[in-house]
Amino acid sequence: GPSDQVVPGNALVVDKSLPFTQLGHFGNSFLSRFECSRCNCPVLEGLTLIDTPGVLAGEKQRIKRGYEFEVVVKWFADRVDMILLLFDVSKLDISDEFRRVILAARGNDHKIHIVLNKADGVTTQQLMRSYGALMWSLGKVIDTPEVSRVYVGSFWDEPLKNENLRELFEQEENDLYTLIAQLPRTAAVRKVNDLIKRARLAKVHAFLLDHLYSNMPTFFGHAKEQERMIKSLPSIYSEIAQQRSLPLGDFPDPRMMQQLLAPLDFSTFKPLDPQKLEKLEHLLTIDLPKLLQIIPEEQARVSVSPAAVSQVMGAPTPFAVMKVGGASEQSVYQAQWLRPPDVAEYEAEFAQLQPRDGKITGEQAKEKMVESHLPSTVLHRIWALADTDGDGLFTQPEYALAMHLIKMKLSGQDLPIALPPEMLPDDLRGLEGAT
Length: 435
What we know:
By secondary structure, the protein is mostly helical. Helices cover 46% and strands 5% of the residues.
């Protein structure tokens, strides 16, 4: 949004410019706990992050939510582009409610990605055991023959506690950030895919309701026949699939349909409309394939090159990954950091790196900067801030500035989005942005 604001749930569902109007039917118990935070941040352009409340253990806590948590989760799961399941390395158990949440997302398995967080808090041997335990637990819940991909890392900007795993964490973060960075480029294909899935489901529903309606008796025994058909729904699925040449995989879960059909009167259903069915077939066989052919042309017209995606934070640095952490929120910096570094303090250290023509390369600087144990995403941002002329090399004042920013981060301060002018050493004033 243009400005930072928090919009409460009841106001959110009446705003037709946002995709949340359908959430109104979940009632005030849900809407009183639902809110939207908007902020003016370039990194979030075209991106919406949905954060769920903590998943509880125990029936008492589940009932006290006051709304059907799993149904809300399913509503979002059907509409989002990516689902991230977060596990802490020290909390690998899957509670009953978490199990129900995962099952509620069934049908969207291709969107699910699993993250094992805080992995730097254990040794390499302990991490292997934790990873194995997580995969074993997930295997009992996610009922698919394919192995789920788990991204292992430490997704924060504090120093790593286990430096031996730095390379693994960077590779895993790189894969996950790349996936997130590519979401806008593949969103159109996913939307068409969801439309195809809904159209096929609508087709199956139409045949099912027509079958139930046409098999109802004309005069007597409605209730008894309806009860019989509900109980034999799986065999009815097979019968319809064989008659209409439909794959059984397109049919909805029979247990869910049995619950939905139980209170309904089948005699009130309408017979199948051949004209509407013909239009649906035209959509599936002609219109949607044409749309899929157009999408690559549109993507090529507005596409971002892989090189540009890989350098979201600007020019290449020795710490770059495909997509870095992005801008952190603006914080109040302590006065001691809003000043230039003491360049002379780093003179001997800079000389030990053997500069040529008064400059050192990224590889030379990297040797010293990684001693801070900060993640590469953070060191990438520090490099981008300190390399004021953007030439990919460090002069002594730029090196001093980088060391100053590292100390600033290690003291618990957030890095600035853009370098404040008052932090520039005298030798660099007027040079920022020069090439």
